[in-house]
Design brief:
The complex is a heterodimer of chains A (627) and B (506). Chain A has 627 residues and is mainly alpha-helical. Chain A is 74% helix and 4% strand. In chain A, the strands form two sheets. Chain A has a two-stranded antiparallel sheet. A two-stranded antiparallel sheet of chain A has the order 3-4. In chain A, a hairpin with a 2-residue loop joins β1 and β2. Chain B is mostly helical and 506 residues long. Chain B has 18 helices and five strands. Chain B has a three-stranded antiparallel β-sheet with strand order 3-4-5, with no helix packed on it. In chain B, strands 1-2 form a two-stranded antiparallel sheet. In chain B, β3 and β4 form a beta hairpin. The longest helix of chain B has 32 residues. Chain B is globular and about 70 Å long. The chains are: A mainly alpha (627), B mainly alpha (506).
Chain lengths: 627, 506
């Protein structure tokens, strides 16, 4: 089989799984639903691995193909195929999505055990993996947008999975609507692209884009960036992500850490030729990423919900990825996407083990001293945390520092501001990450823990611990795919698909590494001083951080309230008079007609209908017969 | 002409069924089952018509024609046949009416013979409107469609049905009479009422007479005064037929009569019509967001969707036309399905008010799955057939002015807001006061009513080109002239993206 056939299998295996579970309904046991869902995602992973190994045998110039099954949508000379793109970039994403996805779905079998609606959960999870694969494999921009919308849908379904909780339903709706804003700007970019080039096929659209004016390319890039920012929870469309933690923890790990939220990074890499024509927009992407990574880091410092801390950390890390692809260091951005998928999924799943053991409690003020009770989980969590802070030899070290080095390589005022923000971020990362580690696993054990911790249950079943262990191995080793000054596995692989705009020197890499590791360690040390050694008092709360810089309040005042108010106003001023006014007018003028209608009796009705039908029929018979 | 009998059969079969049911002394269930059988056979004949239609034939593409001269000296003839896009609307009507009739059989409407005879008569009216190739025949079927509706709403509707019927009657009659006046003036002045052989008209007044009937029936803002009452009071399946199918007769009129037969007036009035459509799109979406009951959301979202479809039609380019036809089919199925679901929820809870509903997903997985699926397609999640239609429409209207697409994009966000509000108000959170534990999940029979609609929508999500490849196509592009599959020749300007500047006769 060629890599094209296996790519199609990879795409549709999870959809088949979702359909099977939905149609099976109650006939299917809950365990079977979990197994089908996990199995279908692992089939996708296996197909991706086979496709990858086939692709490896080909020359780098022969690794990019588009395969079309049928015309999906058409109008005149515009045709959009149902097609997949098989190239190093989509292959990279297929492996990450299906691999990490399979592990997380398997973990869910243990995590969701006993939930009333396990089947629905597993159908949604498989649907999500299909949607995400559609996003990364779609062979043109409209299919990318289709996958884009479908991951938003699955995210909505899974955030609101526990739909009896009002907070979960509200969070799900918020996520969907904010993403719909991004979808809308994305779609507008595509309308403009079609109007100017007549196509949405990657190759053709990109080559025709070279002939477009600067204004047009900037508008198209801005529309795409709007979609990317909403999906990846970057400023200013980020407020849905922390709320999305209402979903089950494996959902947070898969959708809101490892895969979906990084789709914006993929989008910018995929449409790199357009962003390169609109370099101001590409710089905007980098700047938004840099600002987000600091702001999210600051907010993470004061959060008390274990999942929300990790969620803000995700925003912050995606900020690094945006910075990377925004600077044109595509391979570095994508590499960080991959290592992040490992260590962030690991952190979430390990947090899930903690939450699971504490009867659903997520408040870190009620935890503490869990190291003794959960030694394996502690190790796993620590691996994730060290990787997140970017300390060698863990993977985050290898993937984050090239991004920081790219900022130095960019140089100029812009480059150095980006560099300053990025290293400020590493300090914050060390601080908030180890605040979390120390509050949860070290120090005095809260009485709540003693009351709720189930010693018999322990750290959970193997079906949960094994995937976490695999992710821990990944988080430790994945960084060695690319070692500065040594080898460049990821860069070389991606180069044919997205050639980099920026190259870093070994000196720049070294400077970036030394500074960021040093600052990460400072952050870790300060956290130690405050939360373990207790030589420093915990800092006073900063209202701006606690209120998350008032974004929610702002959007409520600027968007939601005006929508409600204008709907009310329209009803009072337009709709009411229009409908009620006609009623009054009619009642005055045609009262006679009304009494006629009132006399309609059902026996008579049939006669009327019959008379009408009969006269129509007579008309036909007469005129057709006498032709 | 070849296969003209198929068209005649599609028109006459439901009419015969209506007469049979009205005359034969059938018990209630039998009347319903006969009507159902007739409508199923209708679908089969539609399948025949679809396969007999030659989409490769470029010119003279009104196919499956049958002509009988009625009054030769006046130029009136019984002339029927289908264009490539009309045939999809006939399919929508056949499938939609079957679902509505099945729903009525399931809930057991009173006075069954009168009811089912009216429904079949309505089917004939709808199919006839899409088949008519003579203006007077068009008018006859237009009225044959409206009159059963007055009866269906007035007799089987809710407590406020009389006022609703009256509103509906006054509005639509006013529109119809203006259209009749236009038809007479047009036919007499041209010496023929035939749509295919008669030339184009350039008269703004005649054009506006037709538009009057269509804007009321669609409806287009601000001619929708009859809509809230009628959609609320009508029996659920009749409301679904009204918003899903009958409104498409108006959209079809916009396309086939207003745009394709009055190219100059259509160009003159294009901007005001698009402006009204845009207002309706945003206005309907906002009111849907505020409506306090299920049918209100669906009703106002229909107003919005008709605005969107009008966008596509008056974009007057291939993307707009194809998108609009696809969207007519999508919206027809979605609206009908949503109204039927609203009816089923009302049957269980006794109300459709959101403040008394909620929590119905718990223990009712089938209801939740069907409502969720329909709702998600309705809000045009990317990848759905509804998305495909909206995407093409907005692609088309973008060429008329990017601002219209921005309006459309805002409406996409609003659609997400009102549809998710509906879904969670019915299904999620704590149990509403009107929802008792004994309220059942959808039963197998009810699932059988709704499943075909959902399956068809999923099919078109996988392959929306099934419709767009088989409506308007571009044949050749020499000299900026190309032929559409309905035989119209289009003159295009290809300066900045191809745009139809004129529809000209072959």
């Amino acid at each position: 089989m060629t890599e094209i056939t296996t790519s199609w299998i990879c795409l549709f295996a999870p959809l088949a799984g979702a359909a099977l579970i939905t149609l099976g309904g109650n006939q299917l046991s809950r365990r079977a639903a979990g197994v089908i869902s996990t199995g279908s995602v692992f089939v996708a992973f296996a197909a991706a691995v086979v496709a990858f190994s086939t692709m490896l045998t080909r020359a780098p110039s022969d690794r990019s193909h588009v395969s079309t099954a049928w015309t999906w949508l058409s109008a005149g000379n515009i045709h959009f195929g149902l097609s997949v793109i098989v190239d190093p970039l989509s292959m990279f994403m297929m492996l990450v999505v299906s691999g990490v996805g399979g592990l997380i779905v398997a973990y869910s079998i243990g995590y969701m055990h006993g939930d009333d609606e396990e089947r629905r959960y597993f159908a949604y999870m498989a649907l999500f993996v299909f949607s995400m694969l559609m996003l990364v494999q779609g062979g043109n921009l409209i299919l990318l947008l289709a996958g884009w919308g479908l991951v938003g849908l699955s995210s909505y379904l899974l955030i609101g999975f526990w739909h009896e909780r009002p907070s979960a339903v509200a969070a799900a709706k918020k996520a969907f609507v904010m993403n719909a804003i991004g979808d809308a700007t994305f779609a507008l970019a595509l309308f403009l692209l079609i109007a100017k080039t007549g196509t949405l096929d990657y190759g053709l659209a990109f080559s025709k884009a070279h002939g477009l004016s600067q204004t047009v390319t900037i508008l198209i890039a801005l529309g795409l960036l709007g979609g990317a920012v909403a999906k990846s929870a970057q400023l200013p469309l980020h407020t849905w992500l922390p709320d999305a933690m209402e979903g089950p923890t494996p959902v947070s790990a898969l959708i809101h850490a490892a895969t979906m939220v990084t789709a914006g990074v993929y989008l910018i890499a995929r449409t790199a030729p357009i962003f390169q024509l609109a370099s101001s927009v590409q710089d905007t992407a980098a700047a938004l990423g840099a600002v987000t990574l600091v702001v999210a880091g600051l907010i993470a410092l004061v959060q008390t919900d274990i999942k929300r801390v990790i969620a803000y950390s995700t925003m912050s890390q995606i900020g690094y990825m945006f910075l990377g692809v925004g600077l044109g260091a595509y391979a570095s951005g994508m590499f960080h996407l991959m290592t992040h998928a490992f260590f962030k999924a690991l952190l979430f799943l390990a947090a899930g083990v903690v939450i699971h053991a504490l009867a659903g409690e997520q408040d870190i003020r009620r935890m503490g001293g869990l190291r003794a009770l959960m030694p394996k989980t502690y190790v796993f969590f620590l691996v994730g945390a060290l990787s997140l802070v970017g300390l060698p030899p863990f993977s985050g070290f290898f993937s984050k520092d090239p991004i920081i080095a790219a900022a130095i390589a960019r140089g100029g005022a812009f480059g150095y501001v980006m560099f300053a923000l990025a290293i400020a971020g590493t300090l914050l990362t060390g601080l908030y990450t180890f605040r979390l580690v120390f509050r949860v696993f070290h120090g005095q054990r809260d009485t709540f823990v003693d009351e709720t911790f189930d010693t018999h249950h322990g750290e959970g079943p193997l079906v949960m611990l094994v995937p976490v262990g695999v992710l821990a191995v990944g988080a430790t080793l994945a960084g060695w795919l690319q070692v500065p000054g040594g080898w460049a596995g990821v860069s070389n692989w991606l180069k044919p698909a997205v050639p980099p705009l920026i190259e870093t020197t070994n000196t720049q890499e070294a400077v970036a590494s030394i500074v960021s590791v040093a600052l990460g360690l400072v952050g870790l040390g300060v956290a130690w001083w405050i939360y373990v050694a207790r030589r420093l008092p915990a800092p006073a709360a900063v209202p701006a951080f606690e209120k998350k810089f008032w974004f929610d309040e702002l959007y409520d005042a600027v968007f939601y309230k005006p929508a409600v108010a204008s709907a009310k106003l329209l009803y009072a001023l337009v709709e009411g008079p229009l409908v009620g006014g006609t009623i009054a007018g009619i009642a005055e003028t045609v009262r006679g007609l009304g009494s006629g209608t009132r006399r309609l009796q059902t026996g008579l009705v049939r006669t009327y209908v019959l008379a009408l039908a009969a006269s129509l029929a007579v008309l036909f018979v007469v005129f057709i017969a006498v032709r | 002409m070849a296969n003209g009998w198929l068209t005649d059969t599609l028109i006459l079969l439901p009419l015969g069924g209506a007469i049979f049911i009205a005359i034969a002394p059938l018990p209630r269930l039998a009347a319903g089952l006969v009507a159902l059988a007739v409508s199923l056979v209708e679908i089969a004949f539609w399948g025949g018509a679809l396969s007999a239609f030659d989409y490769r034939a470029g010119a003279g593409s009104v196919q499956l024609q049958d002509t009988t001269t009625w009054f030769g000296d006046l130029g009136i003839s019984y002339h029927v046949g289908f264009t490539g896009f009309a045939i999809w609307l006939v399919g929508l009507s056949a499938v939609g009416m079957t679902a509505a009739i099945a729903y009525a059989v399931w809930v057991g409407r009173e006075h069954a013979r009168a009811y089912f005879a009216s429904m079949l008569l309505l089917t004939t009216g709808l199919v006839g409107v899409f088949a008519a190739q003579d203006y007077l025949v068009f008018y006859v079927f237009w009225e044959a469609m409206l009159i059963p509706l007055y009866v269906l709403v007035g007799v089987w509707g809710g407590p406020g049905r009389l006022r609703a019927t009256l509103m509906f009657f006054i509005y639509t009659m006013a529109g119809s009479l203006l259209m009749l006046a236009s038809i007479i003036v047009l036919g007499v002045s041209q010496g023929s009422f035939d749509m295919v052989t008669a030339g184009y008209s350039g008269s703004n007044w005649i054009f506006l007479g037709f538009i009057a009937a269509f804007v009321v029936k669609a409806p287009i803002f601000p001619f929708h005064g009859w809509l809230p009452d009628t959609y609320r009071e009508a029996p659920a399946e009749v409301a679904g037929v009204l918003s899903g199918l009958v409104s498409k007769a108006a959209a079809y009129g916009f396309l086939y009569i207003a745009v394709l037969h009055f190219p100059d007036p259509a160009r003159n009035f294009r901007t005001p019509i698009i402006v009204l459509a845009a207002i309706g799109l945003i206005y309907g979406s906002l009111l849907a967001f505020r409506a306090p009951y299920i049918r209100g959301v669906v009703a106002y979202s229909s107003l919005a969707q008709m605005g969107l479809i009008t966008f596509g039609l008056f974009a007057t380019n291939l993307a707009g036309f194809n998108g609009a036809v696809l969207q007519m089919v999508n919206h027809g199925l979605i609206s009908l399905g949503m109204f039927m679901l609203a009816g089923l929820v009302e049957l269980r809870a006794g109300t459709g008010r959101f403040d008394r509903l909620g929590g119905m997903a718990k223990g009712r997985p089938v209801l939740a799955t069907v409502l969720m699926t329909l709702g998600i397609i309705a809000l045009a999640v990317p990848g759905s057939s509804n998305f495909a239609g909206e995407f093409l429409i907005l692609t088309g209207v973008f060429k008329s002015g990017w601002g219209w697409s921005v309006v459309g994009a805002i409406a996409i966000v609003l659609a997400a807001m009102y549809m998710l509000r509906l879904i969670s108000a019915v299904l999620h959170q704590s149990r509403g006061s009107a929802v008792s534990d004994s309220a059942r999940d959808l039963r197998l029979g009810e699932l059988a009513l709704l499943a075909p609609i959902v399956v068809i929508l999923i099919f078109f999500s996988a392959w929306p080109a099934a419709i767009t490849d088989h409506t308007f196509q571009q044949r050749s592009s020499t000299n900026g002239l190309s032929t559409l599959s309905d035989g119209h020749v289009v003159q295009r300007s290809c300066g900045t993206g191809c745009q139809i500047v004129e529809l000209v006769r072959p």
